[in-house]
Amino acid sequence: MIVLGLSGLPYAQDHLLKNTTDPHPLDERNVQGLDSAACLVVDGRVIAAAAEERFDGDKGTGRFPANAVDYVLREAGIDKDDVQAIAHGFNYDRHRRLFAGSQDYFDAVLSSATMLESLHDAGWGNVQERFHAVDHHLAHAASAYYPSGFASALCIVSDGMGETESLSVFRARDGHLEKLHSQPISQSLGLLYSICTRFLGFASNSDEYKVMGLAAYGDPVPFRELFDTLVTFDDTDGAIQVNWPSGALGNPELGYPKAMQYLESVAFPSPAQNGEVVTEQADFAAALQARLTAVLTSLTNHWLRRTGETSLCLAGGTFLNCKANQALCDLPAVERAFVQPASGDDGTALGAALHITQELGAPYVGRPEGFQPYTGPSYTTDEVRQALQERSEHGGIDWTYVGLGDDYYTAAARDLAEDRIISWFHGRMEFGPRALGNRSILGLPKGDRIKERINSLVKFREPFRPFAPAVLDEDRDRLFETRAFAPTRYMLCTARVREDQRAAVAGIVHADGSARIQDVREEYNPGFWALLKAVKRQTGTGCVVNTSFNVKGQPLIMDPRTAIDTFLRTSLDRLYIEGFIVQKAATSTS
């Protein structure tokens, strides 16, 4: 059984830009259907998955994932006609009557016909017979439940919105998902967080992770009453209530003006963000984060009690929030947890494919070591050599081939021990927003001003942004306090840095004493594990700063040419790429 999964609404962004007069740049993502992606599942096995942004460079794009589709088919060695089912992670058609007053918009953006048309334009035939529309939250739930490997679990989905829902609770058992509870868009936690992100001067549906980072610098007390009133939880029915004033969620294309007016009336004028930490903004972010964490904790506890489940699966953009995930993983009733690494809408391509695969009688087949997010393109030694040779013709780089042996890992570890910042490009690209050791920028956690150097000279991003550590499993418990559930493998859960170790890893300790860790084990990523072992031999600790290989506004790097170009336009010291060591050529002076 060969199933192609798709995410995205191909015409949503174009429709907003075409029908909105001078939209603010921070509001250009106030649409559904972003983060388009493709995934291919063959006989229950995930063969390949990737987001379209990695191919076309348009970060977060929701347009038809033509390049991603071509890649996953090529990776499997199959043709369009070999695909037996096409699964899309939206199912608006069954809600058509709710859009009676906006049929033109429905037909132009939301209808499954838009995806069918895009497939046809991309050269696909016989698509109607193969096409399956999957409810958005069901696709999210499937993306977490099946890869978790749990026989039964409580599965919670939370995002800005699905077709008509913003939060859903499922009971997962024996390969099937039963919906127990859902909440309408008016009660959306994800939408609340996005609107508050915009209020703080960041881009909606894009920069929520910046607000999470900013929150660590603030005190929630000044705005606690505001958020306690705005967001409530009812333990009798297990529902969250977001108490917006009437009309607050109107005109998203204009940045939710009534919601902005409300927040300004109860907080402060919406600021222009300049990258600096301002006390009232940090306090607002801290109160927002604290309330999100509190209500998700109450909701999860309620449904764990009602179902008797002890395993927890999470998906949807809300659960890219690592601080909230830590609180949920720390609940006494939770014995194990899994968060889908691609919890945003890109992950619904995977979830839709897995759901239809299950429905058609081919259950998910996992890997012994657990879910692997390394599902993107990889490149051979010859392909990398060719890219280096082409770039060398223009000057600017020197390179040598060492091969993927001890000398290579030792050289990289020595560079890190000597406080150089390196880029690390190996194997298959990660699926989801986190760089997990295959497309990474790495540094020494106790390096001189390591956080400031990477933020200002390499990533060109806000100075308050934290960095995550990748740590050997054998050193994890010495450095961090964590239950080491599956989310720590994927940089999806924070952990407390042990007091007596903070000086040794100062560059990854956030303002609140936490760190968003990646627990690296040999069976998950042998090459990255080998590097950390070499780092431990050089420094005594198998831990590095790990941030994504890209710069501000650029998607995670996919291919060697982009890696080389990005290396040359930043202050990175070395590029380690598939056995090649690359450095900038010395410039001659006369």
From TrEMBL:
Domain Carbamoyltransferase C-terminal: 413-584
Location of the Carbamoyltransferase domain: 131-354
Alphabetical list of InterPro entries matching this protein: ATPase_NBD, Carbam_trans_C, Carbam_trans_C_sf, Carbtransf_dom, NodU/CmcH_Carbamoyltrnsfr
A GO molecular function held by the record: catalytic activity
Coiled coil stretches, renumbered: none
Pfam families per UniProt: Carbam_trans_C (PF16861), Carbam_trans_N (PF02543)
Family statement drawn from the similarity comment of this UniProt entry: Belongs to the NodU/CmcH family.
Name of the protein: Carbamoyltransferase
Species this protein is from: Streptomyces yokosukanensis
